[in-house]
Write a structure and sequence with these properties.
The protein has 171 residues and is of the alpha+beta class. It has five helices and ten strands. Strand 6 (110-113) and strand 7 form a beta hairpin.
Length: 171
């Protein structure tokens, strides 16, 4: 998408968020093909990822995918589209599940979660493992509902219940 003029009406609309969000679930995966570990608190490392997560442990930095976030309000949609009564957050292999703020509005923006400063880098598209996790059609059930990836600009702790707040440019 072309960069919007900061004075345009569309840029103004993009900047307006109804309220702060909230962290509802935290998880890391210490190695490939192992279950997610559910946590109450996790440490985010600048330019790398989350303590105890396989991406942080296996690389010198995870760049644009330092942390993955999923919209809590999308869990019922994913469940319905994949033929399940409910879906547990760990099934979808994202690091955070947040509610109350539209994650798509944080793409290409800076935001805070607790003391951590992040920048939304793009969509977190589903992978082929969703077929195993959700059954046939699981990949397509996740399309458009996979959340976003973010880069960790300033690390610190993220805790359950922390606010998710968009940050103004330059802050």
């Amino acid at each position: 998408m072309a960069r919007l003029s900061p004075d345009s009406e569309l840029a103004h609309l993009f900047a307006q968020l109804p309220r702060a969000g909230r962290v509802d679930w935290i998880g890391v995966r210490p190695a490939r093909d192992v279950p997610m570990r559910e946590l109450e608190r996790v440490e985010a490392h600048d330019g790398a990822g989350l303590a105890g997560d396989r991406y942080t442990l296996s690389r010198s930095g995870s760049g644009k995918r330092g942390i993955t976030l999923l919209q809590a309000e999308h869990l019922p949609a994913i469940a319905a589209l994949s033929g399940h009564a409910a879906i547990l957050p760990a099934t979808l292999r994202r690091n955070l599940v947040v509610s109350g703020i539209p994650l798509v509005a944080l793409k290409d923006r800076r935001f805070r979660i607790g003391e951590v400063l992040l920048e939304g880098t793009g969509p977190c598209d589903p992978c082929s493992r969703m077929e195993d996790a959700l059954g046939q059609g699981g990949y397509n059930a996740m399309r458009g509902h996979g959340g976003i990836c973010a880069r960790i600009l300033r690390g610190g702790d993220i805790r359950l219940g922390d606010a998710v707040i968009a940050v103004e440019e330059g802050a």
